[in-house]
Amino acid sequence: MKRLFSTLMALVTIASVMVIGAPAAQAAGSCSGTIIYSQVQSSGLGELVIYYNSSNGGTNSACFYHRGAAYGKSAPTFVQIYRCAERSGEGAHCTRSGSADTDSGDFSYHAGPVGVTGVASYCVEAVGYIGWAGERHQIYSRRQGC
């Protein structure tokens, strides 16, 4: 019994070292910085927020937060951000330039952060939604940060 316990403890120690020693996944952005766009969905269940940080040639990140009755409740949640080809025209739809960063799943508080870099002189667009009571409650930011 003592030998079994020692073996189990050794395995737990090795597993702990492997997890702690593994590098953390790097998010493309963070839900922080200067807020350049924020909109609460008309149902009051979600809010799309876009942040800007001047690092890496300009970084925009986005998060879609649960609000109201959805706060703290697990629900399908999605957020995506991408750089636009346009450099002006805030508020209009954009032509996507390059790849998008996306986060989705069943979350209780928010989806994201997602981010794009090298956007210092470009617009970005983000979209987010929460699935609630069989409906998709969605927000498109259109061009922002131009």
TrEMBL record:
<feature type="signal peptide">
    <location>
        <begin position="1"/>
        <end position="27"/>
    </location>
</feature>
<keyword id="KW-0732">Signal</keyword>
<protein>
    <recommendedName>
        <fullName>Spore-associated protein A</fullName>
    </recommendedName>
</protein>
